[in-house]
Design brief:
The protein has 131 residues and is an alpha/beta fold. The protein has a single domain, classed as Rossmann fold (3-Layer(aba) Sandwich). Helices cover 41% and strands 22% of the residues. Strands 2-1-3-4-5 form a five-stranded parallel β-sheet, with helices on both faces.
Length: 131
């Protein structure tokens, strides 16, 4: 097994069951560590400042701040965190706003596990899984 630094991921998802499922899914990845998990956009910004993750996996529709507002706020922290948006659905205008706010990728919640993990790795600058 390659010894490389883990990718620290912050999960932002207001659906508790889906957020817990994501945590369990990511926990089995040898190169990914979940450093925090919240269900509110405003709390996400505070937790991002505290944990300094490599990648933020964020829902689009959130209480407090939505995905666009939270992504922009995370960027204004001077954070190096790459934001990957995971949403049930997104319209073209919303997608443009997410990318303009600083998101690096946008996937739907029905994406394959490998696709989600691949997007996290790619956002962190690692495109291949550790072996």
């Amino acid at each position: 097994m390659v010894n490389a630094p883990t990718i620290d991921v912050l999960l932002i998802e207001d659906n508790d069951v889906f957020r817990e499922a994501l945590e369990l899914m990511l926990a089995v990845m040898p190169d990914i560590r979940v450093v925090g998990s919240v269900g509110d956009g405003r709390a996400a910004v505070d937790l991002c400042e505290e944990t300094r993750p490599d990648v933020v996996l964020m829902d689009y529709r959130l209480p407090g701040l939505d995905g666009v507002e939270a992504t922009a706020a995370i960027g204004s922290l001077g954070s190096d965190a790459a934001v990957v948006v995971l949403t049930a659905s997104v319209e073209n205008g919303e997608l443009g706003a997410l990318y303009e706010a600083g998101a690096v990728a946008c996937l739907t919640k029905d994406s394959d596990v490998n696709e989600i993990v691949g997007a996290i790795r790619e956002a962190a600058g690692r495109s291949a899984p550790l072996v």
